[in-house]
Amino acid sequence: MGYERLGTGATAVGIRTKDGVVLGAEKRVSYGGYVMSRAGKKVFKITDRLAVAAAGLFADMQTLTRILAAEVKYYEITTSSRMSVYAAAKLLATIMYSYKHFPFLSELLFGGIDEAGPHLYVIDPVGSVLEDDYAAIGTGAPIAIGIIESGYRKDMTVDEAADLVIRSIKAAISRDAVSGDGIDLVIVRPSGAEERSIRL
Q1: Packing angle, helices 85-97 and 58-79, rounded to 10
Q2: Structural domain count of the chain
Q3: Is the pLDDT of residue 2 over 70?
Q4: Which whole number is the average pLDDT over 81-110?
Q5: Which domain holds residue 164?
Q6: Separation in Å, CA 191 to CA 19, 27, 120, 122, 135
Q7: Given the residues 11, 17, 47, 139, the one annotated as active site
Q8: Is the pLDDT of residue 39 over 90?
Q9: Is the Cβ–Cβ distance between 60 and 107 less than 8 Å?
Q10: Which CATH number belongs to the domain containing residue 46 in this structure?
Q11: What is the mean pLDDT of residues 165-177?
Q12: Mean per-residue pLDDT, 117-127
């Protein structure tokens, strides 16, 4: 992936359960092998039902989430209705595809809840959209996904999924030099989205 060639690192993880979605990412911002910040936020609450976790170029993550938040708010104000999770994911994918000749160097996990239930989508830098029960992206993904696959169950609660997300990111941090310095989570339930931050 392009962000790996740039030397930026990240680990972001998402899990969908029967009653919610958990997204998490570590906090280290690195570029070209240097640690630029230990307090970067790579998990973003878009609305009280939608959230994004990202890996890649930090400025691109921030820009994409700002564009998406503005577009979703505009849609919901003008139509007086809530955008479905799939529609929001496709909107984000379309934004990314429209820049395919000079792409945003970010890979995204997009999750949320609507009338159809919880959803988790993986979106690549040129706008491909795949729905899954769990996913990991970034330089620490090969380590994180192994922990998730060993602990994931279809009948998990949201709190169990949050614990598994934390364990998978901690494992990635311990083996990936450009991931670290804490974990941010967004837990999306039918009652709303809750943000948590864990210092390591």
Answers
A1: 130
A2: 1
A3: no
A4: 95
A5: 2-198
A6: 10, 26, 17, 24, 24
A7: 11
A8: no
A9: no
A10: 3.60.20.10
A11: 91
A12: 95
To the nearest 10°, report the CA torsion of 67, 2, 13, 150: 160
Helix residue spans in 109-157 (DSSP H): 141-151
Residue 3 has what pLDDT? 46
* pLDDT value of residue 116: 95
Please compute, for residue 47, the number of CA atoms within 13 A of its CA located in the half-sphere on the CB side. Answer: 24
In the block, tokens 């921030």 appear at 62
Contacts of 124 (CB under 8 A, 6+ apart): 96, 107
- Please determine, for residue 44, whether its predicted confidence score (pLDDT) is greater than 70: yes
How far is it, in rounded angstroms, from Cα 155 to Cα 141? 23
Nearest-angstrom CA–CA distance, 94 and 111: 16
Given a cut of 80, is residue 188 above it in pLDDT? yes
181 φψ region: left (φ > 0), alpha (ψ -120 to 50), beta (else): left
Helix or strand run (H / E) with residue 114: strand 106-114
> Does the annotation mark 11 as catalytic?
yes
Task: Show the tokens assigned to 21.
Answer: 């979605």
pLDDT of residue 1: 46
